[in-house]
Amino acid sequence: MENIDFNDTDDGCQENIDKNRALYIFYSSVVVVEFILGLLLNITVIHLFVFKIKFWKSKTIDIFLFNLVLADILLLVGLPVKAYNFQQCSENKVVCKVQLFLQFLNRGASIAFLTIISIYRYYSVVHPGRRKVLRILKRSPQISVFIWVLLGVLTIPAMMQSFIRCNSNENGELLNTVVLLREIVFFTQILIPFFVLVYCSIRIIKRLEQKSVGDKTKLRKAMFLVTSVVLVFAVCFLPYAITRAVQLQTNGLVMHDEKVAIVKLYDGLLCLSYVNCLLDPILYCLSSGTFKKLYISMYLPFLADKEHPDTSEDTADD
Fold first, then answer.
1. Where is the G-protein coupled receptors family 1 profile domain (predicted)?
2. What gap in Å lies between CA 244 and CA 183, rounded to an integer?
């Protein structure tokens, strides 16, 4: 639980855990399941990128996909600590802030690479003639390094100032410059990418409707893919961000029980947000016919005979 602020000692946190033991055991179990399934899926996908596809020699989009999966893996690695905290409420301040730094960094990287992939596909499908933009986007190694460095700098405030939960001896958080910067980064890295995804998806679908005359199956698959990405993003991150905004707005302005209710809702939506790490490889990697066949042949050979040949490539994977 990241965001409990009882304006007293850690006894308030333990009291909340004791009163909602069954709920937080459920939250902890969900996180453990997400950790196991997500880590297995992402590790197998990244294994193919490194040892079979050799992403550094492959298509531009493969480098972005590799970084997306890497960010999801690094985010998943911290989930056992999150599951433990859901049950025990024993947080060392240093461990808490390091975990939050890694969580902010890797979730931000995951969203950033998801967004850059959508932008790349948008220009490849809707504006293939804009070669200058495409040449810039094809500098995927440099863009990837820039994203990691930029997010690392922007995430430093998560270490410098407590995130409400990391220091419950504080009498609330003052809206100082560090806290304000941290919250701006938090909401910006969710809201702006969401609107970019929606715009790119709508334009891609309209363009595909114009190009895919008579090829309804391929059109439906492409439309399903881009729509699914937006829906998954909206379900995983928007409720989580909205609840965070409500939590900040009501901090210090509502009764103790109301704060606890908001915290419980936030923690549940935080668990939901980790589902994105499980779905990213499916939506982005396994949506490619070539990658899907390679994955099945490597890890699910018993399904290989049941799969029909599929030579269609993912949208704009040039």
1. 41-284
2. 10
Kindly report the length of the chain. Answer: 318
**C-alpha to C-alpha distance for 286 and 175, rounded to whole angstroms:** 43
Residue (of 212, 160, 162, 157) closest to 185 by Cα position: 157
Going along the chain from its start, the domains and CATH numbers come out as 10-306 (1.20.1070.10)
Query: What Rg value do the Cα atoms of the chain yield, rounded?
Result: 21
Give every CB contact of residue 302 below 8 A, 6+ residues apart in sequence.
Answer: none
pLDDT digits (tens, 9 = 90+) for 167-203: 444 444 445 677 777 788 889 999 999 999 999 999 9
Give the span between the Cα atoms of 1 and 263, in whole angstroms: 8
Least confident of 55-69, 135-149, 284-298: 284-298
